[in-house]
Structure formats: structure tokens, C-alpha cells
Amino acid sequence: KAIQSRGGLFLLPDEVLASILEFAAWGSGLSNPARAKGGMVLSHVCRRFRELITRCSSLWKDIFSATMKPDMASTFLSRCRGGDGEVSLVNCLFEPEKCANSAFIQAVLEHTENWGKFTLYGAVGAKIDFREFEDCQLQDYYDLSKDLDLPNLTHITIHYPRPAMRCKVRDDPRFHHVR
């Protein structure tokens, strides 16, 4: 109460204070973990800061399977608003059965309404013989995704490993290749 009576930051409108808090969190670093950590620290100052910082979608939008635990991914996506979330999966492209059972996948599927962009990085560092890539694997991915409700999804990007571009996958009309 004493702090509030002094004025200062507490006199600022929510929109202005939210911008200041977002700027301060971004000052913690450009990487998603650093921004998020800055946001979490600021959210512990007081209730008003917490309410404002949790509404700053840009702090929570980058969801990356290689660096996040499932519960953190779910929390981040729940704080995104209407398509701000950018979900990235690593090493799921050629193992759909592993993907479907992943705790991370299950966590991000709880908030599909907040997905705006989806990126799939396939087989990073894996040894895969792409000449053996079968149509049934494409069917597996179709089966996994056909019933998803993604009302705000506007971008899908798939990064195939270089070996995939040198074999039959590259010539498949279902794949789009850009250099």
C-alpha cells in the first residue's frame, strides 16, 4: 500500500506498464529462455506485474522441443493469444510413432488454438536412408494430424535434412523444396 501511494509505475496505465515490462524482459537476452526467465522474474514483483507480464504473448511465443520441458511448453502456449505461438519440433520427421507418444507433443496439443506457426526440423544429426522413405510414413503423419483443430495456424515449415534433397523425396510432388 505504501508503494502504491507513492505513485511512480503504479500510476501508469496497464498498456504502458506492459510495454515497459516487456522491454525489460527482452533486455534479459534475445534467446527465448532468457526472455522467459526475465518475464518470470518480473512476474514475481507484485500481482499487477504478474498479470501484465503473463499477457505479453511475445515473451512466451517460442515453443521449441529441443530446449523445453513439456510443462513449460504448455504454460508458454497457454499464455499466447490467438495464433501468437510458434511451435518447433526437432527430430520427429521420420519417427511418427515416437512423436505421437511424446509428452512434449501431448503438452502442446492442449493449446492448438494458440498455434500461429509450426516448424518441423527433421532428423537433425540422424543417419537415415531416404531411399527407403515410404509413402506409408507420409500416411502416418496424415493420420496423426488430420483431426487437429488449428484455427490460427498460418505458417508451416519443414526443414528436411540435406540427404533428403538428393533422393526420391525431393522429386515427390507432395514435398515443396526451396533453396
Brief overview:
The chain has 179 residues and is an alpha/beta fold. The chain has helices at 2-6, 14-26, 32-43, 47-54, 57-60, 70-79, 96-100, 103-109, 135-145, 168-171, and strands spanning 62-64, 85-90, 115-121, 155-159.
What this model shows, in words?
The protein is α/β, with parallel strands linked by helices and 179 residues long. Helix content is 44%, strand content 12%. The protein is built from 10 helices and 4 strands, in the order H-H-H-H-H-E-H-E-H-H-E-H-E-H. The chain has helices spanning 2-6, 14-26, 32-43, 47-54, 57-60, 70-79, 96-100, 103-109, 135-145, 168-171; strands at 62-64, 85-90, 115-121, 155-159. It has a 4-stranded parallel β-sheet. Strand 1, helix 6 and strand 2 form a beta-alpha-beta unit. The longest helix has 13 residues, at 14-26. The radius of gyration is 20 Å and the shape is elongated. It starts with a helix and ends in an 8-residue tail after the last helix. The mean pLDDT is 75.
Comma- or semicolon-separated keywords:
alpha/beta; 179 residues; 12% strand; 10 helices
